[in-house]
Predict the structure.
Amino acid sequence: MERPFALLVGLSVVCTTAVGHAAPRLVYQGTAGCPGGAEFVAAVHARGGTVVLDATGNDEIDVVIQRAGDAYRGTVRVRTDGQSSGEREVRSPACAEVADGLAIVSALASRSGSLPEPARTEAPEPASADTSTAAAAKNEAPASPASVPQALPAPSTRLHTVGQFHDETLSVTSGQLGVRNDTAVTLEAGALFGIVPGAVVPRFDLTLARTNFITTPDGAGHIIGSILRSRWTVFSPTEYRHSDWSARLFAFKASIGGCSPLVYDLSGFVLLACGEIGAGVARVTTKDPNGHTTKDETLGLGTVAVELDARYNLGRLFHVGVTAGGEVWASQIKAHAGDGSQIFHTNLLGAYAVAGIGMHFW
């Protein structure tokens, strides 16, 4: 609506007699660059209306102003005893003009307890029309646009990230806000390279990840913050030999970490950049050439890892995944033969790659 509508409704306000009822409660939402709640209340009072900002009461006037492309869109709706009216809309390139138009409508609504009917232009009746038909058409009430049910948009499975590294504001239209999560459990198997020189250590991972997201009334999905993850890793028992002496290494660790989503589609491809810290134990058993155990010890294990975690969701239940990353073993693990020579030792840095399947629920 433009200025002509504002002037027309303004004249209606002047000509309308006051109806004695309690001042309704005003619920006001204005976007950046628009008048605040107190300014809007003053504008309503200046036009002969009476509203109370964020008070309590059965009667309520809801006003929302938001950005709509290169212009501003404002709506006003009246709620009385749990019943909601259809909304009135004002659009203009200037937010001040939108606020003025909504203030006029709100002033009239506060006096009468309902929104004014929008101005309509009736088409002239055809000269040949039957008198009874024309009369019936006149008496027939026009359908209100607010009474026509609006189909809800299909929710998008492609999620975007908000509030991960700093505070962000997300503008939404009026309606319901869905709070959901995607929980994924993945079992993967692969190998660890470089930690033991010249050897490949079999590795098995069980990973649990939880992604919290919201769905706005327009169907868009937004991930809130980072993705939390926990993992349990088993390094399969592996035997290393030197000069007829042998050492057997077995290790287990638990890790916690977080991920930043690079791509996230609930029904398609997911790519995460993750980091984690872990702690566990490693057991080393040393045997002489005759197979007798000479040393059996359990050592502490601390790790730090970064990785890329990719998976493809096969619908709403199953997924396949591939993970590759680098790992730091903070404590060195060694095994020695009886003559003091070294059977094996672990390095500081290593790399790993695993692949597997899993399930996810959202």
